[in-house]
Design brief:
With 97 residues, the chain is mostly helical. The protein is built from six helices and no strands.
Length: 97
């Protein structure tokens, strides 16, 4: 994806950065996304966390119910992507400590 993005995509990211609480995120994303979209996004992130913990594809599929194709895509992003999953996982882990 083009890093510069469109004006509307940049606006979306800026609006997300301005959200201050989990409750504000719930409100915004429930308005913005369908239930299926939210489920898909949260499942992909959960897959990334589980893969990072060292679980194999079968274990991840059993825990999340996602397809092996989705698991493979997330794994590819973890290994060769732009670092978004890695940054999110590291920051979430740091926040728990």
């Amino acid at each position: 994806m083009d890093r510069v993005g469109s004006e509307s995509l940049n606006r979306l990211y800026q609006v997300i950065l301005e959200l201050r609480t989990v409750e504000e995120c719930y409100d915004f994303f429930e308005d913005l996304c369908t239930i299926k979209e939210l489920r898909d996004l949260s499942q992909r992130l959960e897959v990334a966390f589980l893969l990072d913990k060292g679980l194999n594809y079968q274990q991840v599929a059993a825990q999340t119910g996602v397809s092996s194709a989705t698991i493979c895509r997330v794994k590819k992003c973890l290994d060769y992507g732009s670092g978004g999953y890695r940054r999110a996982i590291d920051r979430a882990t740091d926040a728990k400590e």
